[in-house]
């Protein structure tokens, strides 16, 4: 029995040893900037994490091809957290203590980002997240080392409410996914409604895998709502759009930035026509006016991404882009240790033009974006078009 | 406790403890240390589930729910209400126990598949509750701001200190469980596992013992939840869903439920597999983390087909057969080993 146990332990340990020996790098003592990046390449978060992962790989190559940062190459260590906080915790510890990185980027999902936040704070290593939840960078005193680049749901909600106010639509219904993304959206929709004089007359939810939402939509129909806000990621919102058409509901359909991709239109077909969403500008790089301050950044990133990977970078690609570029900015300025990078991000990033928006970080605001960095998009003729 | 009862060998515990203590010195890498810390947490759940499956013959597909209740009770009480984590440990043990007690009453008449279905439903209900009760659990994006465990001014943070904290609890759980199965309760439980009707006819109060072990297994899961919550800054409902329950089940089936060491080895092996996949993945591009799931499934299939009692009991009984062929008839089984094949 004991022998057996010992044998098993030895086997497990041996497996570990193989891992150890391979981690030794044979490069010698050449100077290199090591940065960790943890994104959800697999698991439920992969549609979001993959463009982030690709963007990171692409930029590492581009930067090193151009001779690195002030002549020093960067080495980005990419890791997949499989969309789970446990794996993210393991990888975060590896990045900080084993790889000794200067900063960590990621992760894709809010749950994993929050788990990593605790470790970043304990070890005093800057973390730039691509997660949506506001809790990643608030409260400010608990988020000294943590930044995030994606729009917060509050930005998207503000953008929607501004639009509804313009259109004179006051009574709205909500149909939201019951997952983290939907929950966070509903929270912000509730929190900001009074600022814009909006009344929520129905608040329904669905499960991520639901194939039919007619029950919820029938309730919304009878509630007298003048518009419906659907908060979720594919395929749920597409099903809702189809069901609305089947039920003959012709009130305006406002989506979230979670469906800012071509697959929503493919899934919803005709029913997608007229759907309006708030989004980052990377959704339609060719439609952005030439005089837009982000035009240059977005079009060059879009073109090189498309050339390298074939697919669309989507808004998530822009989070991957901004995360790495912010650290690069700090390194360019001469920040060479975690603390200097953090200080640079908090104090020196003012009106920085990124792919997601224009960033101005401060001690209280580690997200750095405003609602006007989002624009409205509408489906016209089977394509997302820039509205107004 | 050990009077008149075949006592377990302290040697096994000693060897295992030595391995546990020396691990951080052999592997200083933070990645392995974090893996090993999680493995310790999973071991606690798996040992509890092993007691339930291997000794009481009950299947629980809702173990992650007890684990989640333990984690969320302590997280909410220590963060929202500012209680000391050591105080909330009591709640993390009591809340799952109370639920198991209530559940046990309603499930007392359920057997086999029906019990599995009931616990499965319970697991789903709890997962939905954790996700939807937003005012308390902060919903799907996760509950955050959880304080660290402190003891005499020392703060347990992720790393070596937390590794030892987790494994200290894991060793206590293992010793406790070994004691239980070598006591009167243990023998009663094994008789229930083999034939509930027969043991009932012999005067064993099957309902009572089944209930007791169900409560114990839920408390172990709650303890693991407590350790898991205070390890991190945040927890989210995703960690406590059906996937978690199935993973715990896999650990027990892999290692073998009829031995406490089986559940321990199962938990360690699952962690080792994920390390191997991780290492292989960094060298071979097509090996992604999805491989893990495939590998678990494959191993599970092989185990169920060829070694239905699980790895540890199967190998142990083989070793025994070779060594003590002649003396086998009058020999009592070694630590926690029951030869399933004799009883089927």
Describe the fold and architecture.
The complex is a heterodimer of chains A (388) and B (344). In chain A, the strands form four sheets. Chain A has a five-stranded parallel beta sheet, sandwiched between helices. Chain A has twelve helices and 14 strands. Chain A is 44% helix and 16% strand. With 388 residues, chain A is of the alpha/beta class. Chain B is mainly alpha-helical and 344 residues long. Chain B has a domain of 227 residues. Helix content of chain B is 71%, strand content 3%. Chain B has a two-stranded antiparallel sheet with strand order 1-4. Chain B has a two-stranded antiparallel sheet with strand order 2-3. In chain B, a hairpin with a 2-residue loop joins strand 2 and strand 3. In chain B, helix 4 packs antiparallel against helix 10. The longest helix of chain B is centred in the first third of the chain and has 26 residues. The N terminus and C terminus of chain B are likely disordered. The interface between A and B is large, with 57 and 60 residues.
Give the SSE layout.
The complex is a heterodimer of chains A (388) and B (344).
Chain A: H1 2-23, E1 33-39, H2 46-65, E2 74-80, H3 85-98, E3 103-106, H4 110-123, E4 127-129, E5 146-148, H5 153-167, E6 171-177, H6 180-192, E7 199-206, H7 214-222, E8 227-231, H8 236-246, E9 253-254, H9 262-268, E10 276-279, H10 295-309, H11 314-332, H12 338-348, E11 352-353, E12 358-359, E13 375-380, E14 383-386
Parallel strand pairs in A: 1-2, 1-3, 3-4, 4-5, 6-7, 6-8, 8-9
Antiparallel strand pairs in A: 10-13, 11-12, 13-14
Helix pairs in contact in A: 2-11, 3-4, 5-6, 8-9, 11-12
Chain B: H1 10-26, H2 30-55, H3 63-79, H4 85-107, H5 112-132, H6 134-137, E1 143-144, E2 149-151, E3 154-156, H7 160-181, H8 184-194, H9 196-201, H10 206-231, E4 234-235, H11 242-255, H12 260-281, H13 290-306, H14 311-323, H15 340-343
Antiparallel strand pairs in B: 1-4, 2-3
Helix pairs in contact in B: 1-7, 2-7, 2-10, 2-11, 2-12, 3-4, 3-5, 3-10, 4-10, 8-10, 11-12, 12-13
């Amino acid at each position: 029995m004991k022998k057996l146990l010992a044998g098993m332990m030895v086997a497990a340990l041996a497996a570990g040893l193989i891992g150890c020996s391979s981690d030794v790098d044979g490069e010698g003592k050449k100077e290199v900037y090591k940065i960790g990046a943890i994104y959800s390449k697999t698991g439920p978060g992969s549609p979001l994490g993959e463009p982030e992962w690709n963007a990171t790989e692409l930029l590492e190559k581009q930067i090193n091809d151009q001779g690195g940062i002030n002549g020093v190459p960067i080495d980005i260590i990419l890791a997949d957290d499989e969309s789970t906080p446990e794996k993210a915790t393991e990888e975060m510890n590896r990045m900080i203590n084993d790889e000794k990185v200067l900063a960590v980027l990621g992760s894709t999902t809010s749950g994993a980002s929050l788990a990593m936040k605790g470790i970043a704070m304990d070890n005093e290593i800057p973390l730039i997240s691509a997660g949506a939840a506001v809790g990643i960078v608030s409260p400010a005193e608990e988020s000294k080392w943590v930044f995030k680049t994606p729009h917060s749901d509050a930005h998207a909600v503000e953008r929607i409410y501004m639009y509804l106010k313009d259109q004179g639509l006051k009574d709205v219904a909500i149909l939201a996914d019951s997952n983290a993304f939907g929950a966070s959206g509903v929270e912000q929709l509730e929190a900001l409604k009074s600022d814009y004089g909006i009344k929520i007359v129905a608040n329904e939810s669905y499960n991520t895998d639901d194939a039919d939402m007619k029950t919820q939509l029938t309730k919304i129909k009878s509630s007298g709502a003048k518009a419906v806000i659907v908060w979720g990621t594919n395929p749920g919102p597409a099903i809702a759009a189809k069901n609305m058409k089947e039920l003959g509901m012709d009130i305006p359909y406002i989506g979230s930035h979670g469906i800012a991709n071509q697959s929503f239109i493919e899934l919803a077909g005709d029913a997608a026509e007229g759907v309006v969403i708030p989004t980052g500008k990377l959704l339609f790089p060719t439609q952005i006016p030439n005089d837009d301050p982000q035009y240059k950044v977005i079009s060059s990133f879009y073109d090189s991404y498309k050339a390298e990977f074939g697919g669309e970078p989507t808004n998530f690609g822009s989070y991957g882009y901004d995360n790495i570029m912010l650290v690069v900015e700090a390194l360019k300025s001469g920040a060479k240790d975690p603390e200097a990078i953090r200080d640079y991000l908090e104090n020196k990033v003012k009106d920085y033009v990124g792919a997601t928006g224009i960033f101005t970080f401060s001690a209280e605001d580690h997200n750095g974006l405003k609602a006007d960095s989002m624009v409205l998009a509408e489906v016209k003729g089977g394509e997302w078009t820039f509205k107004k | 406790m050990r009077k008149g009862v075949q006592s377990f060998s302290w040697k096994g515990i000693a060897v295992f403890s030595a391995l546990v203590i020396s691990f951080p010195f052999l592997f200083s890498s933070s990645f392995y240390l974090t893996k090993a810390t999680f493995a310790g947490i999973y071991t606690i759940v798996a040992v509890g589930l092993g007691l339930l499956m291997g000794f009481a013959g009950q299947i629980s597909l809702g173990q992650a729910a007890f684990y989640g209740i333990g984690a969320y009770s302590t997280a909410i009480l220590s963060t929202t209400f500012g209680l000391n984590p050591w105080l909330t440990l009591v709640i993390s043990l009591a809340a799952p126990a109370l639920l198991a007690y209530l559940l046990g009453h309603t499930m007392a008449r359920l057997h086999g598949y029906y019990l599995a279905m009931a616990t499965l439903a319970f697991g789903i209900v709890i997962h939905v509750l954790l996700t939807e009760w937003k005012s308390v659990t902060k919903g799907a994006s996760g509950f955050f701001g959880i304080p660290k465990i402190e003891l005499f001014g020392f703060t347990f943070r992720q790393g070596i200190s937390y590794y030892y904290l987790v494994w200290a609890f894991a060793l206590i759980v293992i010793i406790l469980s070994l004691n239980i199965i070598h006591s009167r309760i243990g023998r009663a439980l094994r008789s229930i596992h083999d034939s509930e009707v027969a043991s009932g006819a012999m005067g064993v109060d099957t309902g009572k013992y089944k209930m007791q072990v169900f409560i114990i297994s839920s408390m172990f899961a709650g303890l693991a939840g407590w350790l898991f919550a205070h390890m991190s800054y945040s927890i989210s409902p995703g960690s406590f869903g059906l996937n978690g329950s199935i993973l715990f089940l896999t650990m027990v089936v892999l290692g073998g439920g009829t031995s406490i060491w089986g559940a321990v080895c199962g938990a360690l092996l699952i962690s080792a597999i994920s390390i191997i996949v991780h290492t292989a993945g960094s060298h071979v591009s097509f090996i992604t983390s999805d491989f893990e799931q495939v590998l678990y499934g494959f191993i599970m299939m092989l185990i169920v087909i060829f070694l239905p009692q699980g790895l540890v009991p199967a190998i142990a009984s083989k070793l025994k057969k070779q060594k003590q062929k002649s003396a086998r008839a009058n020999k009592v089984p070694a630590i926690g080993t029951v030869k399933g094949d004799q009883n089927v």
